[in-house]
Amino acid sequence: MLRIRSLVPLASNATGYYGLCGTIILALLAAAPAVAETFRADSKRFANSKMDIVVTETERHPRTSVVEIQIKAVGSSVGSSFFLLCSVRDLARQRGNYRYIAKVEEQPHRGHMLIAFLQSVTEPPEKIDARLRGQQVIDLEQFSPICDKMQ
Fold first, then answer.
1. Would the pTM of this model clear 0.90, i.e. be above it?
2. Contacts (Cβ under 8 Å, ≥6 apart) of 116
3. Residue 121 class from Cβ within 10 Å (0-12 exposed, 13-18 middle, 19+ buried)?
4. What are the beta bridge partners of residue 59?
5. What are the extents of the domains in the chain?
6. Residue 116 β-bridge partners
7. What distance in Å separates the CA atoms of residue 145 and residue 76, rounded to the nearest whole number?
8. Predicted confidence (pLDDT) per residue in 73-130, tens digit
9. Which candidate, 148, 112, 110, 118, places its Cα nearest to that of 135?
10. pLDDT confidence of residue 46
11. Is residue 98 a contact partner of residue 92, using CB atoms and an 8 Å limit?
12. Could you tell me how far CA 95 lies from the centroid of its own chain?
């Protein structure tokens, strides 16, 4: 028969064991590299009920991002195009205040877009990712007057 007095040493040993495990887990979490913050833009933030588009960053590499574009309702074609463009501009600013990008749609999958962040207008996009060969370099600042009004 087990007595209460015999449980006291077991309880104190268990507390020490769990305390040690907790300390080890906390140390591992503190040493683990931080997960990169991913980007998300939702057209509903503009309270436009006709447009329902969500842009979500699904992959992040040093100079590229892959975004998934989910379109439930397009709204106006001009409005949705500018929402997508301004979302990419916001992502480029978040990633390091990049002014120039190159993009290729339907890469790596349908409904996705591969975006490269370029240092200058003359930097060849294919040096960052071969899938960007032949893609136009886009200067995002040319859209700033429109994007700044959408904030």
1. no
2. 63, 64, 101, 102, 103, 125, 128, 129, 132
3. exposed
4. 66
5. 1-32, 40-150
6. 64, 102
7. 19
8. 998 899 899 999 999 999 999 999 999 999 999 999 999 999 999 999 999 999 999 9
9. 118
10. 74
11. yes
12. 9
